[in-house]
Amino acid sequence: MSSVQTTTRFWWVRHAPVNHDGRIYGQKDMPCDCGDAATFAGLARQLPRGAIWVTSNLRRTHETARAIVAAGLPGPDPIPGPDAPAIADLAEQAFGDWQGLTYEELRGSRGGAFHRFWHAPAHERAPGGESFVEVMERVGGAIDRLVAAHRGRDVIAVAHGGTIRAALGLALNLDPESCLAFTMENCAITRIDHIDDAGLGNGWRVVTVNRPAR
User: Fold this and answer.
1) Does the pLDDT of residue 1 top 50, yes or no?
2) Please, which residues have CB within 8 angstroms of residue 22's CB and are 6 or more apart in sequence?
3) What are the residue ranges spanned by the domains of the chain?
4) pLDDT at residue number 107
């Protein structure tokens, strides 16, 4: 007897650029620049119609989602955000006391010991914040709930660089430190499919990473 394959397709989009003046912003609720109309038109052409939309609880994801809808891709009214449900577990990593520091100030505070790709090693918790390991745990829980609620659907998830790194790491069964080697581009599409059947091998398939909007 052949098994029935059910695929839930996650279309991850990192939010539009933030003018952070070279400072760590993490979970600071910063606005983003949605002025590049061609970028959002490109996203609207590539993303699926009839999808479930989710965002984090931070405004830059709401603003990005609204700009995609305004560019011509039908979405919920209102989109997830202040007036509709958003998922706090999809937020960027909380950097606590480091938020607001420049990268040079952070490096100086650490006695010159700095991470090649990120603000700190994956297992290190920022003072008053969280570690990337903790990000992976909460993002993983959110993804599991989305798969259970929307099995077999397209899910457009407008989120953050750290969130999408965590999703890739979970799909590829990477250790948390390896996830930090991914560079996630603003307004790029990363598609990861969850495949639910009795077949052998991993239940996730990575289709594309950082596909440009145009």
Assistant:
1) no
2) 102, 103
3) 6-195
4) 83
pLDDT of 94 above 70: yes
Question: Contact at 8 Å (CB) between 154 and 9?
Answer: yes
Q: Which residue in the block uniquely carries the two structure tokens 């505070």?
A: 109
Report the C-alpha dihedral over residues 150, 151, 156, 162, rounded to 10 degrees: 100
Residue position matching structure tokens 């989120």: 159
pLDDT in tens, 99-125: 999 988 888 887 766 677 677 899 999
The token duo for 205 is: 């398939």
Q: What is the fold, at CATH topology level, of the domain defined by 6-195?
A: Rossmann fold (3.40.50)
